[in-house]
Specification:
homodimer; about 35% helix; 11-stranded mixed beta sheet
Chain lengths: ~450, ~450
């Protein structure tokens, strides 16, 4: 067991992920040295004033401090690992650490999605590496795969199930036919959803990850605020089931599609064919499908959250930094938002997709013809149409559900057509619009 | 588009993969430079005397040569890419190239599985890197994932569908109920099986990949000849279907399981539960499931063969070599068979698994009791037992098929018990033994 290099670590934050990182560094010390030649030395655990978390986790009190500045003055600290989350203190801590000549490893997706360019510029100025494998899809090494494993590919599209909370809720809705509210309550009981689940179920967390992964996949600066985002919180189980009957599975997808030089980015509950590998991803698991010009379809699957899987990704970054790979990637690849051109992101109205539309109609003659006519006015071509029965939980309601699937259409046209359809007196409720995504189907 | 480093390449072999690599280097030159900062320069294409392949592919005649020695004298050549396959000329070429101070990239699984230690020792002596992403699972970046993405994990087990020909044949047998012979003929017609498919269908090719992946996953030297290997060529569709009725899907699996310090390695047609992600892998696709101590279950999916996907992996190695990562991994990680301890590989008799046993019995009383008695003598505990009807294609035969699934048992006991059972007069044919693998099932 030869030590080839010692690496001093300071970890900021000692929550679920921070605790797991520290525990892996301490408990697997010999194994990590044997495997990597690196002697990882935990030199400090920084936490906010008054916190007792680190002490309660049994960390040596001599290592615990509230004073980041002091830690940064220690020349033995090579890498600062930021695991507090949020976009204020975390941002300051990372900027300070880089300025002090430390490499930084972070799991902070919100911060990178919104302030990536600033942080990478600071890293470049300092001549240090900023790594973030754990920011996307937990333990799945998707960042290193985009940086290195698929480096020779021009990425055509990327589809991610990158929020385990949402995937768990949707899996419950699909399998048990429970409502969104019931499935959410179950997820909370199982510890798979926060008490306030907004960031997850609204799609915001998925959008953070989509921004980070798209920047790497396409080598363009992504404007996070321009990504259209829709969550699963308004999804009705009726639609989940109607889609299922048509051969579709509902997933909250982070979608990035390249059409020549434009990118179509969005987070949406979307129907995918039941034989697409992403349709199989159940419960809290994550998966990312990447379509490369040379490699074709690849998919990466694993746990997208949790202390230990996320710590696996943080440690991978620490090791890659220790071996010099993070620096080599950062210095040479032109994928970093401080040096890349802004992406041409399609405005939401111009996104093209197939659509599932569901209406609640009064059961009277002529109305369907009128709906079809309006869709035609907006250049929306119908692929299939079927009238359904009211599901048991809706029999108190009036009307009949009517489902239409379309061929490729512009989203702007679809929302305008729906508005017009909703104004018909025979249309009893606002219509439902769900993306159908089957552009990269594989048959063999 | 800033060139940060020029990299001279010599490619040996211009077949399917060689041709695809050359085409990607030449046709994507600007894109690769833009993305990686590397200017990849194709300096020579080495092929055997008399071959016209390179010329027919339109490669500049000035680059084509039969003389490797001359190419190696060119100081501008940084990397030699070996893509001729086989274990004789390829071995010589790699040893020569390393001795001449060139980095080497290869896709040659047979060579690495059988002569890995020698080749890595030569690379170490030369201070150069030997990379081989394309040797396992085609375009899936599984080697880099084991080297880097999962570096902090102690790997518990690895299960691979790493031969697309076999997976295509099995998918046909499962979906259409065709016999092995018919499915093989279809695979050949579809260009997915060689005219002589022996290396694929016998499991030999999967064993090569298993040896390479296990060496990296567990950091031990693997004795290739000690890996028990069974192919799909004797598989009866009857058993595929009986297993299906029990909730199992048949796959040709490359299996590596760690139990403390021993490794249980084997290539086997095996039954896995239909809800395991590997059960979903259809047609010519490959996938590798890796269970890590920190990350839990991860899976990597993609095309395991074909010129363009394999070239994606070769290019990934070329880029990682150009950026210095290959060298950093090779110098620091203790996973290379020239420096690792030999693995303690369990002899085949000591492998523990669950088993599917199928007998053809005369339909007379008492015989089942006798079979159960013999299994008991060998400490084999029965999990389920069911008598089946003869399938339509076997109604000319006598007897009734009888299927037993066992709890965990030692393979030596199972084969001995089967031998004794086969000697009973009421047993009409040799019995069928198939592994059932469900050790790492995940439920949620």
């Amino acid at each position: 067991m030869e030590v080839k290099k010692s690496l001093g670590l300071a970890v900021i934050g000692c929550g679920t992920v921070g605790g797991a990182v520290i525990s892996q560094v301490l408990n697997q010390k010999a194994y990590l040295t044997e495997r990597t030649g690196l002697n990882l030395q935990l030199l400090a655990v920084v936490q906010r004033s008054g916190s007792t978390t680190a002490a309660r986790k049994g960390i040596d009190p001599k290592l615990i401090t509230e004073n980041l500045d002091e830690v940064l003055q220690n020349p033995a600290v090579d890498i600062v690992v930021e695991l507090i989350g949020g976009t204020t203190t975390a941002r300051d801590s990372i900027l300070k650490s880089l300025a002090a000549g430390k490499h930084v490893v972070t799991a902070n997706k919100a911060l990178l999605a919104q302030h990536g360019a600033e942080l990478f510029a600071a890293a470049r100025k300092a001549g240090k590496a900023l790594s973030f494998e754990a920011s996307c899809a937990g333990g799945i090494p998707i960042v290193q795969t985009l940086l290195s494993g698929l480096a020779a590919n021009r990425i055509e599209a990327l589809y991610g199930i990158v929020n385990g909370t949402c995937n768990y809720i949707l899996t419950e809705m699909i399998r048990k036919g429970t409502s969104y509210a019931e499935a959410l309550a179950e997820a909370q009981a199982a510890g798979l959803a926060e008490a306030d689940p907004t960031l997850d179920v609204s799609g915001g967390d998925s959008a953070h990850k989509l921004a980070i992964l798209s920047a790497l996949a396409f080598g363009k600066k992504i404007k996070f605020d321009d990504i259209p985002v829709q969550g699963i919180n308004n999804l009705e189980v009726m639609d989940v089931n109607f889609g299922r009957e048509l051969g579709f599975v509902i997933k909250l997808l982070a979608v990035a599609q390249r059409k020549e030089n434009t990118l179509s980015l969005r987070v949406r509950p979307a129907f995918i064919w039941e034989d697409h590998p992403l349709a199989w991803i159940s419960g809290p698991f994550n998966a990312v499908s990447v379509y490369g010009s040379a490699v074709g379809h690849t998919m990466y699957y694993g746990r997208g959250a949790g202390g230990s899987p996320t710590a696996s990704a943080v440690l991978a970054d620490i090791i890659a930094t220790g071996l010099g790979c993070s620096q080599a990637w950062f210095d040479n690849l032109s994928l970093w938002p401080d040096v890349t051109e802004p992406a041409v992101q399609l405005p939401v109205e111009e996104i093209e997709s197939r659509y599932y539309l569901r209406l609640m109609l009064e059961d009277k003659p002529g109305i369907l013809g009128r709906v079809a006519e309006i869709l035609g006015e907006y250049n929306i071509s119908i692929s299939s149409a079927l009238q359904k029965e009211l599901p048991p939980d809706r029999v108190d309601k009036e009307g009949v559900p009517f489902v239409i699937t379309t061929h490729l259409a512009r989203e702007g046209n679809v929302t305008q057509a729906m508005k017009k359809i909703e104004s018909l007196p025979a249309v009893l409720e606002p219509g439902v619009i769900i993306n159908i995504i089957d552009e990269h189907a594989e048959a063999f």
